[in-house]
Amino acid sequence: MSRMALMSLMIAVMIGGLTMVGCADDLYGECTLEVADCLGGDESRSTSCIEEDQIECQSGACGRYQGSDPFCTMACNDDGDCPSGECREFVFQSGQRHCVANADL
Predict the structure, then answer these.
(1) Sign of the Cα pseudo-torsion (19, 24, 25, 30, in order)
(2) Does 84 map to a domain?
(3) Is 73 part of a structural domain of the chain?
(4) In Å, what is the CA distance from 32 to each residue of 9, 36, 60, 95, 96?
(5) What angle do CA 69, 23, 35 make, to 5 degrees?
(6) 2 in a domain, yes or no?
(7) Is the pTM of this model over 0.85?
(8) Residue 10 clears pLDDT 70, i.e. is over it
(9) For residue range 72-101, what is the model confidence (pLDDT) as tens digits?
(10) Between vectors from CA 80 to CA 75 and to CA 84, what angle results, nearest 5°?
């Protein structure tokens, strides 16, 4: 195998390894987000919130929607961005919208 081919193979393996860090498609999968971690400090069970930079979720976002159990979500613009779900504003008048599974609506 030529040196160039070997380097190309090594780069491909490294890139493949980096893309495998985290979970596969985990939209709506479980993640960890305590009610107390929600922005605003409202410890009510009906709180909706998003925590960014969540390593449990491929998208980096874990959320609670109106008292749901925490789930992995992603930013969206409209319902078409959310397979098997809807695009909702979690925090009233924040302008930030994320996907919510139909089961959690």
Answers:
(1) negative
(2) yes
(3) yes
(4) 37, 12, 12, 24, 20
(5) 25
(6) no
(7) no
(8) no
(9) 999 999 999 999 999 999 877 888 899 999
(10) 85
Q: How far apart are CA 25 and CA 58, in angstroms?
A: 7
Coil, helix or strand at residue 104: helix
Burial of 43 (0-12, 13-18, 19+ CB in 10 A): exposed
What residues does 50 pair with on adjacent strands?
63
55 within domain boundaries: yes
How far is C-alpha 15 from the chain's CA centre? 21
What are the strands of the beta sheet with 71-73, ordered from one edge? 49-51, 61-64, 71-73
Cα–Cα distance, 81 to 100 (Å, whole number): 11
- Overall domain count for the chain: 1
> Which single residue is written with the structure tokens 């996907």?
99
Give the domain range for residue 50.
Answer: 24-104
